[in-house]
Amino acid sequence: MGNIKYCCVQFCGYKRTFLGTKKKSTSKPLYRFPNKPQLKEKWVQALINLNGQSEISKLPKEAYICSQHFEPDCLEKIGFSAVRLKPGSIPTIFPFNKTEQLDQDITMASNAISDVPLEITQYPLEEPCFSGKIRYPGDINEENVKGTSNQNLQKYVLILKKACRKKDQMIKRLQSLRNRQKKKINSLQSMLSDLRARDLISSNTSHIMQIFSNATFLQENCFPLPLRGNLTAYGQRYPWRTEGRSH
């Protein structure tokens, strides 16, 4: 059996098994509580205040917290796979906060509002209210990001990443269409050049055929359905005929 270490953050449930010196590259790093009393106390207070863990004061001899509870700028990569915790770092990300803690924060905020002087109590209606859910990138702006929790910020980042992935897919699709268009145009130009060299078509006929072929490609690949009829009418307006010539 390997040595099993657990993350002591309540409701996290992450554990890691160490088998000799082998470590999985996909596993999350676990960081032991600091030996320095002052920094250790800050870790304990973070769990108590931010995650509502009153029983955390009775820590085992070796207690750990996994990397997902630290801000990204608290971590630094060493070598190919090792991730080290920067000195003085404190855990601040707790996505499983208790409802009681949230109620306590709301009560404290309400008490703070009631202490505001009378001369500025006439302005709260002008404060933006963000009661709706943030679901799309357009819903995210400077006002509703300011002062929000780390958990909400993580959700906003995921929404933006998803939108970027969709745009990347669209860019790749358009690049693929452009490459196909270039290949078809090059093939057509090569064919028309060969026909002109054999004196099978006139240069004017070759030019019209090239315009019509390009319009057909754009109609089939690059334009939405409402525009396709207009392109077809354009192609029919300029028909061509093949002119045979004697040699």
From TrEMBL:
- By its UniProt entry, which InterPro entries does this protein fall under? THAP1/10 (IPR026516), THAP_Znf (IPR006612), THAP_Znf_sf (IPR038441)
Family affiliation: Belongs to the THAP1 family.
The primary site where this protein sits is nucleus
The molecular function terms in GO held by this entry are:
DNA binding; zinc ion binding
Query: From which domain of life does this come?
Result: Eukaryota
Q: Does the keyword Lipid metabolism apply?
A: no
Specify the species. Hypothenemus hampei (Coffee berry borer)
Q: What is this protein called?
A: THAP-type domain-containing protein
Q: Would you name any one GO CC term?
A: nucleoplasm
**Gene3D superfamilies according to UniProt:** THAP domain
Where are the annotated coiled coils located? Answer: 160-198
Q: What is the lineage of its organism?
A: Eukaryota, Metazoa, Ecdysozoa, Arthropoda, Hexapoda
Q: Name one Pfam family in it.
A: THAP
> Which UniProt keywords are listed?
Cell cycle, Coiled coil, DNA-binding, Metal-binding, Nucleus, Transcription, Transcription regulation, Zinc, Zinc-finger
